[in-house]
Design a protein that fits this description.
The structure holds 2 protein chains of 2 kinds. Helices cover 67% and strands 0% of the residues of chain A. Chain A has one domain: Ferritin (Up-down Bundle). By secondary structure, chain A is an all-alpha fold. Chain B is α+β, with helices and mostly antiparallel strands. Chain B has a single domain, classed as Roll (Ubiquitin-like (UB roll)). In chain B, strands 2-1-3 form a 3-stranded antiparallel β-sheet, covered by helices on one side. The termini of chain B are far apart. The chains are: A mainly alpha, B alpha+beta. The interface between A and B is medium-sized, with 17 and 15 residues.
Chain lengths: 250, 96
């Protein structure tokens, strides 16, 4: 089994799965009906990406497991998602800040991955790029609207940016898995992704009249399975049914 | 955000894959054209309904008055000669 490729695929899948779960918590609660649909649409894009990636990870695994086993039968410490995506949705500005920082990273990451040597990852990335382009458009629009909106929306957006900022450096951490795969041309070059992300985010925050926070204390560990307290609650809600009724179908 | 006076109503027209005309799909609320377009995409093209979107502020649409219905539309009711089927074609003319 190619352990590195398995881990690499699982990390991407877990990001999509957890962020989807967060977005779906807005269903029927978003500030506008239109936005309700928009957020859950983005969530559905992500669950589609997560499924493709879990299927591929299950294939790479030497155990006899399915995509569902990966999504529903793993405990907190076995999850490999970024800390950013598991952060609470908070108010709408918090959700948008989390989403925007992730979307810009995700798009740049996918655009790198499209050219990687692993055919399956490249194919999944090619399909996901179009979705990610729309996600960036959606979230960056809202950052501008809220940042350069009313006094209250500006204040909330700035607070949200400040809060989520500490989870952004983790997105560019490159560990041995990344480095070994990158050497073989199987992975996205995170240093390139970082340059693109920095440029885009700096420009947009300025346009939105928001202050870019200083370098923050680095919160990281998600990709090694060390999570914030929030992930456990997400998993409990997400996994209760398949765990209490194994093999249940409807 | 709770102040919704800036939110206006927009009408959405979608051109489907096989259609050549944009058809009215419904309405939505948005604060400007850009948001209206984005919302239209999310609300009305989720099931592959379309390949093109028009959004128009509802306030820009001039609608006929329902009370004028009889004045406007009844007069054309008995003018069947306005339909091509009213006219008999010569037998010599095939494939018409």
């Amino acid at each position: 089994m190619n352990n590195d490729l398995y881990t690499y695929t699982l990390r991407q899948a877990d990001n999509a799965m957890i962020l989807c779960q967060r977005l779906c918590q807005w269903a029927a609660k978003a500030p506008e009906l239109e936005e309700d649909i928009a957020l859950t649409n983005i969530g559905l894009d992500m669950i589609g990406q997560a499924r493709s990636l879990y299927q591929y990870a299950a294939e790479l695994s030497d155990k006899d497991i399915s995509e569902d086993d990966l999504a529903f039968m793993r405990d907190e410490r076995q999850w490999r998602n970024l800390l950013l995506v598991e952060q609470p949705s908070g108010n709408f500005a918090d959700t948008i800040a989390r989403q925007y920082f992730y979307d810009v990273w995700h798009l740049a990451f996918l655009q790198e991955l499209v050219n990687c040597n692993d055919e399956m990852l490249a194919a999944i990335a090619t399909k996901s790029v179009k979705e990610a382009q729309y996600h960036v458009r959606h979230s960056s629009n809202w950052v501008k609207r809220l940042g350069d909106g009313t006094e209250l929306s500006h204040e909330r957006m700035q607070e949200a940016v400040n809060e989520m900022w500490q989870f952004t450096p983790e997105m560019f951490e490159s560990d041995e898995v990344d480095q070994r795969l990158l050497a073989k041309g199987h992975a996205a070059d995170l240093s390139k992704v970082k340059v693109i992300w920095d440029t885009a985010v700096t420009a947009l925050l300025e346009e939105a009249t928001l202050i870019k926070p200083d370098e923050a204390f680095l919160m990281s560990g998600g990709r090694q399975g060390i999570h914030t307290q929030h992930l456990g609650y997400i998993l409990a809600e997400m996994q209760i049914l398949p765990r209490s009724m194994p093999g249940c179908k409807w | 955000m709770t102040d919704k006076k800036d939110y206006q109503l927009w009408e959405v027209f979608i051109r489907s894959n096989r259609g050549i005309d944009h058809k009215h799909a419904g309405s939505l609320r948005a604060s400007d054209a850009e948001m209206a377009m984005q919302n239209a995409r999310d609300l009305y093209t989720r099931r592959m309904e379309g390949v093109s979107i028009w959004v128009v502020p509802s306030s820009q649409i001039v609608a006929s008055d329902p009370d004028d219905k009889s004045v406007l539309f009844d007069p054309s009711g008995d003018k069947i000669y306005r339909h091509p089927t009213f006219y008999k074609l010569p037998k010599e003319l095939e494939h018409m």
